[in-house]
């Protein structure tokens, strides 16, 4: 997805071969290529600026590693900085000391939240957990049904505010905060150790949506708030991520549609701008197209 970066660097590095130490001009030429490649990959401008400044500073700095040639040295620096931006180590779910662990999902409509809810629940079930899905997206008429379908596929029960669903909390119908709280109560009474709460998304960021998400967050006090974002949205990722970060103070990011022809800049932009780690990647429409996000692997993919 970042093919252009490695291709461009290869060309630049050819000129560096055989040099013992990088001159300022060599470093600047390389950094220029990195800057162009990142911009082409849709990484946000301020992120590109900060990233390249750091790489330049380190490349010119005193870190001379005798075992590496100059080109290798820059690749090493770029790799380390990419890993750092993407969150360093793979970040695991923060499990509650007193179950249930509560995970809330937030993001724009169409980002892939409902699909992710199914994927995450299936993955957790495979790890020996007993999850409950809670349908607190009452905005889109089909969202509850869609979560029920995903839950069925994952073999995970869904708490939904529908008449006819056997529950003592049917009075919660219509109010997403009440539904989320009722779902949590249901999880406790049925001894589920993880609760995944799907919330409403809109096509654009709007104040009402954000308030609703913030109200749900305040009511259920989640252990994780995962911001689900479509990797294809490019430069828009930054504004969206900032708005959700201010609105719900999310704890981690899930990138979806990484199977598409996304140029991947969203990953770097969101992680860098918000300082929150990318935790999972969604790579297709099937419930198994889901993986833990590994910053080091993503960095290698960018540089390969
Ligand atoms: P929500 O509005 O955020 O709940 O989004 P949905 O879960 O309904 O997903 C929107 C569309 O994107 C659906 O057609 C999904 O099948 C599709 N989708 C979700 N995740 C992925 C993914 O990782 N890759 C691809 N190719 N499609 C996805």
List keywords for this structure.
alpha/beta, 8-stranded mixed sheet, 8 strands, about 50% helix, binds guanosine-5'-diphosphate, ribonucleoprotein, GTP binding
Describe this structure in words.
The structure is a single chain. The chain is α/β, with parallel strands linked by helices and 304 residues long. The chain is 49% helix and 13% strand. It has eleven helices and eight strands. Strands 3-2-4-1-5-6-7-8 form an eight-stranded mixed β-sheet, sandwiched between helices. The longest helix has 17 residues, at 24-40. The model is unreliable at 164-171 (pLDDT under 50). Guanosine-5'-diphosphate binds at residues 107, 109-115, 146, 201, 256-257, 259-260, 282-285, 289.
Largest sheet: 8 strands, mixed
The ligands found in this model are: guanosine-5'-diphosphate
Category by helix and strand content: alpha/beta
Strand content bin: 5-15%
Number of helices: 11
Enzyme class: hydrolase
Subcellular location: Cytoplasm
Catalytic activity: GTP + H2O = GDP + phosphate + H(+)
GO biological process, one term: SRP-dependent cotranslational protein targeting to membrane
